[in-house]
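Narrative progress, year one. The postdoctoral researcher (J.K.) led the effort to move from monomer predictions toward full complexes, under supervision of the PI. The following entry was the first complex the group processed end to end, covering 466 residues in total.
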Amino acid sequence: MKIVIDRSRCVGHARCAAIAPELYILDDDGYIANDGFDVPEGQEALASRAARACPERVISVVE
Amino acid sequence: MASSAELVCPNPPHVPASRVYDFDFHNDPLYAEKGDMHDAFQHLLNNAPGMFWTPRNGGHWIILEHDLVSQAMRTPEIFSSANQAIPAMPAELVMPPITMDPPQHAKFRVPLNKAFSPKSMQEIAGSVRELAAELIDKIAADGQCDFVGAISEPLPVLIFMKLMGMPAERLADFREWVHQTLSNTPEREIAYGKVAQLMAELIEARVKEPRNDLISRLIELEIDGKKLSRELLLGYCQLLFIAGLDTVVNGMSFAIRHLARNPELQEFLRANPSRIPDAVEEMLRRYPIAMPSRRVVKDCEWNGIDLRTGDLVLMAMPAAHLDPKVFSDPQRYDLDRENFAHITFGTGVHRCAGSHLARIELQILYEEWLKRIPSFRMAPDRKERYHAANVLSIDYLPLVWNA
């Protein structure tokens, strides 16, 4: 599973990091620090839940 | 004093009669009739067009539907944040970054992002918890309190005033001013003047003698290699005053009111404190309190609606979060709801800069209050009081418990 983030549309709600702080890394301003990542095995449910928490809907789950 | 009735305007020619619905968001009788401001917005959702024109407060649009609110807030090319007060102000107020649009907005927003980042806010969590405990311990043995006066007013306001570097002993004055700045009466301009004068004095004092507070940091701030003009600095401070002194107060009051009416939820959270962050989120979804506004800057057709330059638009956040197209069974407070992503803090580049501070304060309040106060309920013999504006407010919230 892969997470793809449309980083330019992140406005810093930081909900992804509130749910999965080790997967979704923020910069010093509290905005997402990357464009996505490969989800480590066993953390798929957590990564998906954090993606669904994004009010801007800029995080996609790619199976 | 101009009553809101005097602000009723004839409908402009570009607004069809089918889109007109009479609602005064400052004083509508529907609020009292329903006895609950959020129920009034539910009533609008059920009875008014999803986006309608009201002749009140100078005449303006109100957007109820979630999808349209989201779209509008993410489209600053049409819905500008400049000069967006409803009713319109006699003179435009520039308060960076809230009254700015992209790309200028970002320059003034970035410094606030750092100051209010999740990490910076974690650093003050200890002092929030300390003050929460102190305020709650003061009243725990009384078996009753007005939650607003005892807790939801002093807790977030004193924390914010300390961050800013404002004198704590003037809390009562400042709360009166902030209510006036949000009103639709002529007191609004007078109150903005008082805030400006206070901030000008504080800025002068910090220029001479900087401290470890936000005002001192804003004085040092450079944008495009230059320090801010006194005027912009003042605007910045005015915004922080208004944004910091009213919103969390009401976020706390509406949350505790809901808990007071639902003893089984109190019980559940006392037994399962790890669910408090989810409880805070669902409370924010169920009871949004802030309603931002925008000004149309382009004649256009938008979602089948004719818009004209200068039209003012209110985002009815409480209605958007009761929209059944987005939240199933929206009136129900549901900790396990499928869609838990709310836009109570706004959406798009103007997302509330204080949202991380608000969340930490709310979580700490739930934790400390539930730990220290046994099963509590609304006082049976006293009635709570409310008032509406761009922020829906509880002015008096009498609670009782068995001490």
